[in-house]
Amino acid sequence: MPAFEWRWAAFSAAVAIAVAMSPGALAQSKYDTGASDTEIKIGNIMPYSGPASAYGVIGRTEAAYFNKINAEGGINGRKINFISYDDGYSPPKTVEQARKLVESDEVLLIFNSLGTPPNSAIQKYMNAKKVPQLFVATGATKWNDPKDFPWTMGWQPNYQSESRIYAKYMLKNHPSGKIAVLYQNDDYGKDYLKGLKDGLGAKASSMIVAEESYETTEPTIDSHIVTLKASGADIFFNVTTPKFAAQAIRKVAEIGWKPVHFLNNVSVSIGSVMKPAGFENDQGIISSAYLKDPTDPQWKDDAGMKEWNAFLDKYFPDANRSDINVVYGYTVAQGLVHVLKACGNDLTRANVMKQAANIRDLELGMFLPGVKVNTSPTDFAPISQLQLERFKGDSWERFGDVISSDVGG
Prior knowledge:
With about 400 residues, the protein is α/β, with parallel strands linked by helices. The chain has two domains: about 40-155 and about 300-380, Rossmann fold, CATH 3.40.50; about 160-290 and about 390-405, Rossmann fold, CATH 3.40.50. It contains 15 helices and 14 strands. It has helices at about 5-20, 25, 55-70, 90-105, 115-130, 160-175, 185-200, 205, 220-230, 240-255, 270-275, 280, 305-315, 325-345, 350-355; strands at about 30, 40-45, 80-85, 110, 135, 180-185, 210-215, 235-240, 260-265, 285-290, 345, 385-390, 395-400, 405. The strands form four sheets. It has a four-stranded parallel sheet with strand order 3-2-4-5, with helices on both faces. The chain has a four-stranded parallel sheet with strand order 7-6-8-9, with helices on both faces. Strands 10, 12, 13 and 14 form a four-stranded antiparallel sheet that branches. The longest helix is centred in the last third of the chain and has 20 residues, at about 325-345. It is globular, with a radius of gyration of 24 Å. The protein starts with a helix and ends in a 5-residue tail after the last strand.
């Protein structure tokens, strides 16, 4: 080989070695479908129409929050492309939309799709495809099952934990009470009912005197309320989504029934439930919370509340600030951003789940003090703390301590 050719070959080899050893190459980006140097595609399914349409604002809040993240430079330089579809809270439609997101839009993951029946309908599909079904917007206990469904993870406190907290309160404060339960006839409603019975233990059979289930296709649940009152119950556990929660509160007042009224925390929104039901009808209702109530004056000067209001001012000025669902959407979007940032340049689906399963003591600005996100490879229930609250005047008033009541998958 002539000398100049040898020198060129040696120089080329040296350059190749230097490039291979550079920090950029050592930290080479890894991508799955839906991620690139410039973009992260996130899928979402929401009931923008149908019986659970009050929750549609969650998707709109998330879209606004990701607009904020993009305006600030994105996630490690990548912009979020948020693709959100309506399923009308209809499981067959959810299946159709999930397939569209995964197979046509080719998203990296599906984030915070709403509702227990809709998510149940796509859980096996998402796990078979090995696409993250991350931070689902439902508190069903079944989402905490990393062994059988390693690609599905919940977010909010689970329904059985919540029911057990109410049961504990009932046993302490109303040990001889007679309980009537109204619940949605699906996995969502049955999960709450199971938690209540487990929490009451041996007293469940004597304390629960009436159970009425309703279908989401029913226009009104008035007849169920009349039946429950006739049971002679003096405690009412109202397990409903917003539309039916407001109906139930109004009907209880209209027929002059005055039970100790417990309302599940997915329907505590002042904007979409309590105000439409009539504040005069809401007095004394007991529920639970893990998020700060924007209508509560005690948070007026709170840093997290100020940040939330500033976000709405700029990115979602039309939002109803009395709707706790706006707080929910904002907070869970922050949770996803935390996970995506932790992924660094490894935006594979497996790494998304790995980072989601390794969150330690994450505190977000709109959480109540003491509430933190914690996960592990064997614990897919990010939030487990709640505080009881009672409706007074035109807002919720918290009482007692922040309680943790974990129930596994």
